[in-house]
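WARN no homologs supplied; continuing
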Amino acid sequence: MCGLAGLIRLDGSRAEQADEAVVRAMCELTSYRGPDDQGISAIGPLCLGSRRLAIIDVSPAGHMPMADPTGRWWIAYNGETYNFHETRDELERRGVHFRSHSDTEVVLHAWMTWGPACLDRLAGMFALAIYDSKTGELVLARDRYGVKPLYWTSQDGRVLFASEIKALLPHRRGNRIDLQSLSEWWLYRNTDAVTPETLVEGVVQLMPGHLARIHGGRVRIESWYSPLDHVNENEYRRLSGAPADEIVNEVERQLDESVRLRLVSDVPVGTLLSGGLDSSLITAMAARHSRHLTAFHVSVTGYADLNERRYAEALTAHHQIPFIPMDLTPEAFRANLAHVTWLEDLPLTHANSVAYYLISKVAREHGTIVLLSGEGADELFGGYVWNYRRRLRLRRLQPWLQRLPPAVHEAAALLVYAHAGLPVTARRFRELLPPTIGLLDRYARADAAERCEAAYGFIPDAAQRDVMGAMLADLGDFLSPLLRRLDRTTMGASVECREPFLDHRLVHTAINLPLEWKVGKRADKWVLKQIAMRHMPKGLVWRKKMGFPLPLADYIAPLATRDFFVGGFCEDVLGLGSRGIERLLGDWRRWTFGAFGLLTLEMWGRMFLMGESVDQVADRIATLERASRGSTSGPSSR
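OK structure emitted
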């Protein structure tokens, strides 16, 4: 697990010392991604850099950038290939001799042997750069679901690429906000999913399941994987006709194998245990394969109704696993908010990103370098009641709703819009709002959702098609910022996080599993709960889902003030009206998540586009916190 960076001159001229200095600076800016080793290599027009977090083969033999024995092929690699042992065995049978025990060398020789087709063989998470010095072609590639990041930009005849946006910005001129992406972010709080653009104009992400070929002065993007291609009518029919115990056994076997593979490591492994179903099941299954597992947990101090510690403790006691909790306080949240916003490269989508970062630091301090998480289970197995089950009900109600008189429709719409504070008296407002929302991301999400639903065209029930398509779309949309959160917060603490639910073989089973096993009559995530019954106490399986909520209103109360925005990004760069900001802040507890988004956008803009340091923004937060304490301790507050 590492961070990578590099640049290539598009005219083919040899990289200069100044280019090496750029790549070195990019690597050093994200040194937390790889504190164990650094390497910079110049090969013709390419300068390639790596920061290494040693997980597999921690010896110097795993140093990167890595070349093959002839010096023709070079690789910088960020990620893990969990099935590298079987791939290595196959390559050895073909006569390949290895000089290390690292998965990086296996990936390099797999590419040399099979080319891009080798990616289909790899079970893992990765972003990589592979260079053929004979042809001069550089290939950048990213894993199936976008677990590991990769960004690139082109300027002054060079393509620069890196694991994080922040590494690129100091080496570009005229960094400014991408207004199209900002509009998309305002609505969805997500610019990771369906388009390559980022919040910074000219900085592009390589999309999940894609590769970029850079050769002959051009950048050509190709798709090498899409989950839609693995929706299979025959597989759906097979699973539809299978008895319940056979379904449960098959999913359990695949999940268990995925967990087992993700425990392969030359450094200690633990789990992120919230106490919810998904992380508890991963922890319980991991305990079967490892005697040295440690579970790490975040407790929300002072809020009993949000605290899942008792459930996490019950699971670890049942399996006799060491349990290390961390108490999250409002002060710790605010003290780390600026730093975590900087780590994430975007304004925070989820406030609990701060908790993920802090618990990853705790894991690192206890010597645990690898963590397993339960990410992906909700999208694959129907865990979002507010989305999938509600969607199913509404779709089945739709024929009845269409029979309502137009006047009733209009009255209902007016009531909903008025309650949300939207301008219901504006001319044609109700007719204009839906297409306007679609246009904010160029209909990209709508198009993706339609393609996903169409993939299930063989399902006769329209409501089931709709929900299955929504779950498939969320595998690329809703999941994307969650994966960014995991990567940035764990790597920010120099810890690797692995997601067993996102093994592509398990994913392919899940997306072909009939809805009744997920959101049907039985229960939400029914098949996972049946598996969990075999590994966990019953009381932990069937309790109500909590997610990972924080008392956000209390946490941001000292910051929800006009003073935070004075002379800053939202007003001076974006040109947002001060009266509008004041109106939002005047009723911010009603719109807590909107206020939080505005706060983190302000922080992000100050650090990424206005040149303020993390410490400067953190000091601003601390000043407001001190002022808040003073205002609540005087006579008027008694």
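The longest strand covers residues 73-81.
OK
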